[in-house]
C-alpha cells in the first residue's frame, strides 16, 4: 500500500541537503567534530546585539498570543515597516501601511508574487547565477518555471546585460512560453553586488516594452559595506527610490524585504511584499494569507525593532563594519592560498573558484564537494546557483574570525593534496 501520494513522494525527494548539516553543526566546545557551516546565507556577526535587544528592550503583550489584526501582519508592524522603509530606502513616494503585506519570511513574499502574478506553466526571467531557492519558491507549489539568462563574458550588472534579457525573452516568446515577470536581486545573491540606477532604469524600460512585472528582491538592502579594493563599487539603490512611473507602469513593480539578512534573524520569519500601486495583488495575498501568516511574537519583536531609531543606527553601522572586517579576513586568507575570487561590496558571499586552485583540472564540482564534505565544511557549489562555469563555489563570510578560520582551514585541507 502507498503511504503517501505521488506529489508527497516528489516533495520528499526535494528535501534540502543542507538540513543534514544543521543537525551536526560545529562548535569548538560541544561539537568539535561537527560541520562548519559556511554555506547557508546567515549572518551571525550581530547575534549578541540582537538577542540583547530582544531580551532587554521587549515586552510581549497578549496581542501576541492571538491572530493579531489579521493574517498579513499587525497594523503596528505595517506602520513600523513603513517608517523604516521611508527612512532607509528613500522611496520616491512615501509608503503607507496599505502598500504592503507581511509574510512569514521573504521566501513566502516571493511565493505570493508567484501565485498572484502568474499562472502554473508561466515563466519568469532570472539571470545566472541566482539564489538557488528561487527555483523552489516559484516552482514547487505555484508551478512557475524560470527562464535563465546566460551572460557569457558580459558583466551581469552592466547595461549590456539587459540586452541578454531581451534576447532570451524574444527566444522564449518564439518558443511559445508565457513570460510574466523579471526577477532581480539587488544586492545580489550570490555575487554580492548592486545594480546601478541607470541599469535599473533600463530594466524598467525593458519590462514596460514587454508588459512584464518587475520583482525586486532587496533582502540584503542594508548589508552593504566598504571594500577599499573597489572604492567606486555601486552602492544599493532601491527600485522604490526611483520615479517608477517615468519608466513603467508602477502597478507592475513589487519589492520584497525582511529581517532575515539585514538583521541576522532568519529564524524570526518576518518578510514583506511592498506593492504600492497594485491593490489587487495585495488582496490576492490576503486571500492566501493563512499560508503565509507571520508569528505574532515575531511581529511584536519586529514592530519594536524597526521604530527604535537609535538602536537601528548603531546596529546597521556596526553590522557594516563587521561585514567589512570579516570579508577582509576571508579574502586575505584566500589571497594567501592563491584562490581566485570576485571582489564585492554587499551581502554575505564570496564567489570563489576552487576548481582553479586544484592541481587536477579535471576535478568536477562534485569531486570538490566530496572533499569538502570529508573535511566537514559546508560550502555550496556554483552548480546549485546555475553558475555558467564549473569550479565556482559560494562561501558565506558573515561569521566571526574563529569560525572562518576553522572553516577555511578545513577547506584548504580538502583541496590540499590536489593543490598546484
Ligand atoms: C535573495 C534571497 N531572497 C530571499 C531569501 C529568503 O529569505 P527568508 O529566510 O526571509 O525566507 C534569501 C535567503 O537566503 C535570499 O538570499
TrEMBL record:
InterPro entries: Aminotransferase_I/II_large, Ethylene_sulfur-biosynth, PyrdxlP-dep_Trfase, PyrdxlP-dep_Trfase_major, PyrdxlP-dep_Trfase_small. Pfam families: Aminotran_1_2. GO terms for molecular function: pyridoxal phosphate binding; transaminase activity. Residues 38-410 form the Aminotransferase class I/classII large domain. The keyword Transferase applies. Keywords: Aminotransferase, Pyridoxal phosphate, Transferase. One of its GO terms (biological process) is amino acid metabolic process. It comes from the Eukaryota. This is Aspartate aminotransferase. It comes from Aspergillus sclerotiicarbonarius (strain CBS 121057 / IBT 28362).
Amino acid at each position: 500500500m502507498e503511504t503517501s501520494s505521488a506529489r508527497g513522494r516528489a516533495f520528499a525527494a526535494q528535501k534540502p541537503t543542507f538540513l543534514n548539516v544543521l543537525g551536526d553543526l560545529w562548535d569548538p566546545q560541544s561539537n568539535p567534530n561537527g560541520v562548519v557551516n559556511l554555506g547557508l546565507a546567515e549572518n551571525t556577526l550581530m547575534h549578541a546585539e540582537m538577542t540583547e535587544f530582544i531580551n532587554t528592550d521587549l515586552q510581549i503583550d497578549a496581542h501576541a498570543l492571538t491572530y493579531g489584526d489579521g493574517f498579513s501582519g499587525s497594523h503596528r508592524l505595517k506602520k513600523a515597516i513603513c517608517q523604516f522603509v521611508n527612512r532607509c530606502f528613500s522611496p520616491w513616494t512615501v509608503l503607507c501601511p496599505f502598500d504592503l503585506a507581511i509574510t512569514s519570511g521573504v521566501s513566502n513574499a516571493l511565493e505570493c508574487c508567484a501565485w498572484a502574478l502568474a499562472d502554473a506553466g508561466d515563466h519568469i526571467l532570472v539571470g545566472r547565477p541566482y539564489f538557488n531557492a528561487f527555483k523552489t519558491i516559484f516552482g514547487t507549489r505555484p508551478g512557475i518555471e524560470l527562464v535563465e539568462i546566460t551572460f557569457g563574458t558580459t558583466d551581469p550588472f552592466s547595461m549590456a546585460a539587459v540586452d541578454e534579457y531581451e534576447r532570451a525573452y524574444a527566444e522564449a516568446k518564439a518558443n511559445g512560453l508565457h513570460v510574466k515577470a523579471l526577477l532581480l536581486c539587488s544586492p545580489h545573491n550570490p555575487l554580492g553586488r548592486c545594480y546601478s540606477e541607470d541599469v535599473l532604469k533600463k530594466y524598467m524600460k525593458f519590462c514596460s516594452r514587454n508588459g512584464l512585472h518587475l520583482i525586486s528582491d532587496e533582502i540584503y538592502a542594508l548589508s552593504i559595506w566598504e571594500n577599499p579594493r573597489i572604492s567606486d563599487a555601486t552602492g544599493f539603490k532601491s527600485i522604490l527610490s526611483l520615479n517608477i512611473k517615468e519608466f513603467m507602469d508602477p502597478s507592475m513593480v513589487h519589492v520584497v524585504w525582511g529581517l532575515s539578512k539585514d538583521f541576522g534573524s532568519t529564524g524570526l520569519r518576518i518578510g514583506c511584499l511592498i506593492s504600492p500601486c497594485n491593490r489587487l495583488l495585495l488582496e490576492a495575498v490576503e486571500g492566501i494569507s493563512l499560508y503565509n501568516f507571520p508569528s505574532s511574537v515575531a511581529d511584536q519583536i519586529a514592530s519594536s525593532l524597526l521604530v527604535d531609531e537609535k538602536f537601528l543606527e548603531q546596529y546597521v553601522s556596526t553590522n557594516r563594519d563587521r561585514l567589512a572586517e570579516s570579508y577582509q579576513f576571508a579574502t586575505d586568507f584566500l589571497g594567501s592560498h592563491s584562490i581566485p575570487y570576485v571582489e564585492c561590496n554587499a551581502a554575505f558571499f564570496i564567489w570563489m573558484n576552487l576548481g582553479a586552485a586544484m592541481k587536477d583540472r579535471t576535478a568536477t564540482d562534485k569531486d570538490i564537494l566530496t572533499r569538502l564534505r570529508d573535511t566537514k565544511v559546508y560550502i555550496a557549489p556554483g552548480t546549485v546557483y546555475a553558475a555558467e562555469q564549473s569550479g565556482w563555489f559560494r562561501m558565506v563570510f558573515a561569521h566571526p574570525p574563529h569560525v572562518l578560520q576553522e572553516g577555511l582551514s578545513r577547506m584548504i585541507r580538502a583541496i590540499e593534496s590536489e593543490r598546484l
